[in-house]
Amino acid sequence: MGNKSNIFVLHSSHLDLYWIGEQADCLEIGSKIIDDAVTSAAANENMHFLIETVRFLEYYIDRHPDKKDIVRKLFLNRQLEIGACYTDRLENTHDGESLVRNVTYGKRILSELLGIDTQITVHSDLPGLAEQSPQIFKKAGVNYYLFSRGFKYGARFYWKGLDTSKIIAYNFPVHYSYYNIEGEIIPYLKEIKESILAEDILISCSAGDLGDFNTFVSKEDGKWQRVNVGDLLEYLNKKYNDLNFKVSSAVDVLKNMDNSLLEVKSGEFPSRWGHNASALHVKLYQLDKKVTSQLIEAEKYSAICELLNIPVLYSEPNNPLKHKGGSGGKRRYYDLKMAPGTTKEWIDYAWRLQLVTQDHNYGGVGGAQTNFDRNMYKQTALYIANKIKDLSLEKLCSIIKAEKNSVIVFNSMNWKRSDIIYFEANDLDDTKHYVLKDNENNVYPIVNLNQQYCAYVENIPSFGYKAFRIEEGLGTSIANREIFEKDDFIILKNKYYEISINKIDGTFNYIKDLELGIDLTRNEDFLEINAFLDNSVGVAEREVNKELLDSSRKHVRSVRIIEDNCLWTKVLIETEICNAKIRLEISLIHVKKQIRIRPTLYWPGVPNVQIKMKFNFINNFKKLFYAVPYGVQEYGRYLADSKIFAPDEISDELYMRYREVQGWLSLNGDKASISLSSDHSAFDINYNEVNDLSVILLRDVRSGGDEDVWFLNEGELKWDFSISSYIGMWNENESYKDRWEMLYPLEAKIKVNENDGAVLPYAGSFITTEGNCILTVFKKSDYYKDNYIVRVFNTTDKESLFKLSSNITLFNIKPCDLNEKDSSEAVDVIHPYEIKSLKLWK
After folding, report:
1. Pairing outcome for strands 800-801 and 829-830
2. What is the mean pLDDT of residues 46-60?
């Protein structure tokens, strides 16, 4: 082309799963777009088209099985390309293992469907970037990350994860659609080339939000209109003699770019959509975390059962996703066509339902229906996971050498744990006192909570179990437990903390750490819950200083002690906000250094409201760290120094303050550090004062995709927060483990059978590890019949020696990538922030 500048066009359509309508509608529209692209590419070897996610291709192949061969040929010719992920998910919102499964499931389905692979991932409309994504994608065989938003003139760089993993990230100039090429690309070619460090430019000409094939949304004469891509490029080539516009393969363009001058960037992009999932969909967000944790539990325990030759045989007479009522009606769920057979297939199917619900759009046209669908999918996945987990634990109980009616406590995490357990025992006399005893005759008092029993037990082995006998008797009381109560305050005290609660306005007078001898808070509004006017439409939150509508301090009905036992003392604050009842439970835990805060809001769904609760500790904290998917993020560490580039969405200030926190955060100072764990993720951190901290409990606003749909969060809403304090940094004290223990509590089961055939001792570990790591996955292999996969990750910045062993079988161990292919990584070392996968076989 001589001296012409090449502007390569990535032809695609942004295949939203929930934005244009119900998922069935979106899948069908996406299938039509793909079919048009396949027909066009088959007739014209110069035509290229990108499909963003595997779910749409999977649906298309099912709808058009006769096109399978031509589709495969077009992929091999690179006329068709596809992103590796199964769905276009929110990186900042979902847990690390969900992000892993999204790409590994997508790649596996690609292989099963067409026998092909891909080395790109595409997230055109991605609102934020998580810093561990480079490691996840690198270890899944993805080398190029294509995205838009974030850089006005585009960008190209090596994106480095929290470890040393790097992939090439390419940010499309301006946007994936909805822009004017003549007005926003051509006049800024110099700036774009400098930003992407290349002479050739790759721009996105997506049809945009399931628009017709071969179209592009452009703003002409101040109005949005859909233009034909082919006609537009023909026009531009004729008008600009020094430019060459051409539809091309993304990988071909990126491979030909010189990478020698690329800068290495690390850090995160916080969500540009504010608190899109966790505050707009409180129950759905919490359910999302529960589904993942229970699926992981089901995988772990069913795999252990198989190794012990007591396999779990799970089946369902009908697909549990299927509608059970009506007169022969049928929901339009493509996934109902799936027919799992084995236990492994059922777990795989449940993961699939979870991934489907994690598509990035919340709301859109038919938002009420799609939210219902998400809930149905997640509840079905949870049902399957719980069934398989319970069946597995029953089988394990049956072969453990313990008396009938013993309590067997299971620990799925890879460290020895001591914690409070809950169990049901129908044969106990409520007029008598009971204790648990282990084989060393350690005694643990049982507390009767009317509907269930609880006890504090110690030293449950790493990824293992321990049996306890139930006997009559009295346990010892906890020393140094004191209560002082006056007309206007309650003081609770144990060996760890002293807390004073104001009975007039329901806030804390102070929290004292008695071990460290310091105050953690003396703010009169600590735990105050406030309601603000929020006139935002969906994610477009622009207003920072919102009008205060109401405060929980104004409506306190009672502040009283409701429980006091050897495990905890609990205070209940009953109050209101916006005429909605609040029950705020504060529990001073006596058996470990912890304060639990559990608000319950009975919410009628008041529109245009944002509700926040204050956690404004007073210490002079220098640094704040918070959990992100499979990693830890230091507050203020950005991928780019430039300000937010998404002027239609969240404001600059809120972008700096809002964070999606994956389970825990830590405020670190010289005198003390504080860890706050939670089942909620929407936090507001005032970046001028690091310790000005609030949690955004909910937002009730209109959907940006369909303003007739509201996110109202109606019903009983519950949150769980845990506070602990210590000297030193978060990683030295392993404070991050508290959230994992909340997600994966000790599981207590009653042994219902006699000891016939028992082969396991009364206590033991199934799998043990050494080193700085959290064992998240132990499962059957997806590819190799007799293999098992272990996944651990180092949540700290410290390297350590690593050792994995099993007490129930001998394994050969080999490192592998996320797709279970052999890798050259060391087996015996775990590096800072490393996500390590291992393949085991007998």
Report:
1. antiparallel
2. 97
Q: What is the pLDDT of residues 764-820, one digit of tens each?
A: 999 999 999 999 999 999 999 899 999 999 999 999 999 999 989 889 999 999 999
Report the top-level CATH class of 5-266.
alpha beta
| Phi and psi at residue 264, to the nearest 5° | -95, 120
170 CB-side CA count, 13 A: 25
Whose tokens are 């914690």? That residue is: 419
Residues in Cβ contact with 779 at an 8 Å cutoff, skipping those fewer than 6 apart: 299, 300, 303, 347, 788, 789
Tell me the pLDDT tens digit for each residue of 201-221. Answer: 999 999 888 889 999 999 888
Half-sphere exposure of 585 (CA within 13 A, CB side): 17
Please list, residue by residue across 489-516, b when 16 or more beta carbons sit within 10 angstroms of its beta carbon and e when fewer do: ebbbbbebbbbbbbbebbbbbbbbbeee
Are 117 and 107 in contact, with CB atoms under 8 Å apart? yes
Amino acid in position 485: E
Distance CA 807, CA 770 (A): 14
Q: Are 333 and 321 in contact (CB under 8 A)?
A: yes
Please state the pTM of the whole predicted model. Answer: 0.96
Query: Hey, what are 820's tokens?
Result: 């279970």
Please answer whether residues 381 and 350 qualify as being in contact, where contact means their C-beta atoms are separated by less than 8 angstroms.
Answer: yes
Q: Do domains 5-266 and 766-841 have the same CATH topology?
A: no
Domain limits, the chain = 5-266, 282-398, 529-734, 766-841
Fold of 529-734: Beta-galactosidase; Chain A, domain 5 (2.70.98)
Residue 346 per-residue DSSP state: H
Average pLDDT of the residues in 221-249: 94
Measured distance CA(677)–CA(666) in Å, rounded = 9
- Which architecture does CATH list for 766-841? Sandwich (2.60)
How does pLDDT run across 453-485, given as a tens digit for each residue?
999 999 999 999 999 999 999 876 666 789 999
Confidence of residue 737 (pLDDT cuts 50, 70, 90): very high
Residue 512 DSSP SS3: strand
Describe the strand order of the beta sheet including 518-521 as a list of residue ranges: 482-485, 489-493, 497-502, 508-513, 518-521
How large is the angle between the packed helices 367-398 and 343-357, nearest 10 degrees? 150
pLDDT at 753: 87
The single residue listed with the structure tokens 């003396």 is: 522
- The 10s digit of each residue's pLDDT in 543-597 is 999 999 999 999 999 999 999 999 999 999 999 999 999 999 999 999 999 999 9
The helix (H) or strand (E) run that includes residue 435 is strand 434-437
Closest Cα partner for 307 from 799, 669, 832, 810? 810
Integer CA distances (angstroms), 762 to 437, 720, 756, 809, in order: 12, 33, 14, 18
How far apart are alpha carbons 449 and 385 in whole angstroms? 27
Q: Write the DSSP assignment of 165-210 as a string of letters.
A: -EEEEEEPSS-SSSS-HHHHTGGGHHHHHHHHT-SSEEEEEE--SS
For 333, the token pair is 């769920």
